[in-house]
Write a structure and sequence with these properties.
- The chain has one domain: q2cbj1_9rhob like domain (Jelly Rolls, Sandwich).
- The chain is built from five helices and 15 strands.
- The protein has helices spanning 4-13, 24-42, 79-87, 90-98, 185-193; strands at 15-18, 61-65, 68-72, 102-114, 133-134, 140-144, 155-158, 167-169, 182-184, 199-202, 209-212, 218-220, 230-240, 244-245, 276-279.
- The longest helix is centred in the N-terminal third of the chain and has 19 residues, at 24-42.
- The protein is globular, with a radius of gyration of 18 Å.
- Keywords: Dioxygenase, Oxidoreductase.
């Protein structure tokens, strides 16, 4: 399924599409799990965890904000998500594309876009800016659960931005200080607005995946006005073998992790908290 060309493109550009990774059956199961979790939130409740141990993420949440409706941390709350972790090729694909010798699941975020509100386009950003982990093998594994053409909010990436040696000072971080190795957020926005910016658009069929490097600058277009249906993307974050715990004053504080005695700065997170899902 994964060719040397896929691996080379990911390394060079910071994003790669692999077609047909997930069958129609997996797509249907994941969509049903998304809708089941959304229905619990619609009742004003929080989905209960069904996965034993391992993940140390906060409870599931649902909110409407930048990029439309988001569901987060729902994988531990539905049996089909848990089965997908155990039985699908997801972890192996992440390992092969990143070159990691082992892969652990970290967290999930599902993005549901409907209608055609321009504000529902995901703004330009990259993922690593607030991560309390560092490493090359911290990708976002983006799964199309609906077809995504040029009219249905496709992803955009700035090719080669994965090779940046710095982070950007996120608007979500505290603004009363800065740290060495961070660049102003305005520089990120200026790069994608430049006339020579190498911006790529990624169409996908349901079951296709994008792997996005944590430093790759990316966004989405809005949906076209009058387009029926919705655009659903299920994303998961993974921890590869080069990743270590390295929070700083500008990274996010994650409940259950930031004060956990087993999380040691400069070391890989323990397998008791983040079980290995795949080894080479």
């Amino acid at each position: 399924m994964i060719s040397d060309a896929h691996v080379a493109q990911y390394a060079a550009e910071g994003c790669v599409r692999v077609e047909g990774v997930f069958s129609a059956e997996w797509v249907a199961r994941l969509l049903a799990a998304v809708d089941a979790c959304a229905a619990v939130f619609a009742r004003g409740e929080v989905p209960a965890a069904v996965m034993d141990g391992g993940t140390q993420n906060p409870p599931s949440i649902h909110f409407t904000g930048e990029g439309g409706v988001q569901l987060r941390n729902c994988v531990p709350a539905h049996a089909d998500f848990v089965a997908w972790l155990a039985d699908s090729p997801a972890a192996a694909v992440v390992g092969r594309l990143t070159g990691a010798s082992s892969v652990r699941f970290w967290m999930d975020a599902t993005f549901v876009k409907s209608g055609a509100d321009p504000e529902a386009a995901t703004p330009w950003h990259n993922d690593v800016c607030t991560f309390p982990f560092v490493g090359e093998q911290l990708p976002s594994f983006w799964v199309a659960l609906t077809d995504v053409d040029a009219d249905n909010a496709p992803m955009l990436t700035l090719a080669g931005s994965n090779r940046d040696a710095w982070r950007y000072h996120s608007p979500l971080s505290r603004q009363d200080m800065t740290l060495p190795g961070y660049r102003p957020w305005d520089e990120l926005l200026a790069r994608v607005a430049a006339p020579d910016a190498d911006v790529r658009m990624w169409e996908a069929k349901a079951g296709d995946i994008l792997l996005i490097h944590p430093r790759t600058i990316h966004a989405s277009l809005p949906r076209k006005a009058g387009l029926p249906g919705r655009r659903v993307a299920f994303t998961t974050r993974w921890i590869g073998s080069d990743v270590v715990w390295a929070p700083d004053a500008l990274s996010a504080s994650i409940p259950r992790l930031s004060d956990h005695p087993a999380m040691r700065v400069g070391e890989a997170p323990p397998e008791g908290l983040f079980p290995v899902r795949w080894r080479s």
